[in-house]
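ZP: hey, is the shikimate-3-phosphate complex queued? I don't see it on the tracker
AM: it wasn't, my bad. submitting now with these inputs:
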Amino acid sequence: MSKEIIKGSSAPLRGEITPPGDKSISHRSLILCSIANGHSVVKDFLISDDTLSTANAMRALGITIGINGTQADIIGKGLYGLQEPEKVIDCGNSGTTTRLLCGLLSAQVFTSILDGDKYLQARPMRRVVGPLSLMGAQITGKEDGNKLPLTITGSKLKGISYELPVASAQVKSAILLAGLYAQGETEVIEPEPSRDHTERMLSYLGIPIEKSGNSIKIIKAERIESGEIIVPADISSAAFFIVAALITPGSEVLIKNVGISPLRTGIIDILKNMGGNIDIINEREANGEPIGDIIARSSDLHATEISGELIPKAIDELPLVAVAACFAEGESLIRDARELRVKETDRIKAMATELRKLGARIEEFEDGMSIHGSESLTGSTCSSWGDHRIAMSIAIAGTRAKGETEILDAECVSVSYPGFFKVIDELRQ
Ligand code: S3P
């Protein structure tokens, strides 16, 4: 179990970085290109534990995937070309792998079993099993189908109209993937819009998607064309260095090639509301995904209150918002974020516990937390809770804490951002 030590410092962060590829888009590129016809090339693909879980799952389903540098070459076998896996598919720590595959595997002509690590085994799966069962899927699992391992016996599916009880791009994507195979039309209605990379990639690969308000419709597909996909850098990874620059005097960091889909830029909206000096320049597009370069400079932050529609747009960055709030004037409030309790770990409890060890004043609620800005954190020994985003959020807090912050079980950063710790040193002047 590796640990990392972060030295608190007032050294400004300066320079430019291009974070690794977007995790959500990398997962989707592997899955969709596997059921496309022929050779697809994915450039700037994220090589991390999570995306390798998806690559290995698709390989276990008979797909040839070559990964060279940051390029993935996928030889798609069409919608009906997957093969029964010989063994249990190990989804590792990846909720996205598990939930998206539930949708895909529900429609196959064979049986598959999905399992994962102890963190994934604790996460709720009824949210996908429920709607997929309404489509005719046969899925069984522990705790009456709510927990891994799940056994999925492929069936003939029928389209449904399903109102999601909670905004979730993973559940929406699972239903849309099943909808590619289901008789008739499949509709998902979201309470608030969540990231739409599945819809964007399906459209890019020639599958019609009908959007109207919060409703997304798909009809049974005949064929998916292969293509070239360029993966933008992950805004969720960029966010750590945006916050690091904002809270460190004298900093200016340029973060290049970042995916800036409006359903992912909640973190920018939140930080700008807090007084963050952030600009997005060179806006452009690749394969239907907006991209830009982000400049973040040190800023005098003030407290903020976030809830409602903003929550799904910043869901993975909320632990980091808690860190920014520690360095902001006043008391910040995060509400409507109950979903954080069922992520890789309970991220409300984890952040409240670990930031308190550094001296932060935090109150925990069932659906969020309040954070008193103080500017006076002191290094301590913290746990990652086995969760990549907790490890990296605490590391950013540690860069501005007095003395040293030790992060235990820090190797989990490789789930989304291998090399994260080196980047801190590279940017510090
Ligand atoms: C993801 C969706 C979100 C997010 C996760 C990645 C995706 O999860 O938290 O890190 O790629 O679809 P939910 O669908 O559970 O909100």
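AM: back. The chain has two domains: 3-21+232-428, 23-230.
ZP: great, adding it to the tracker
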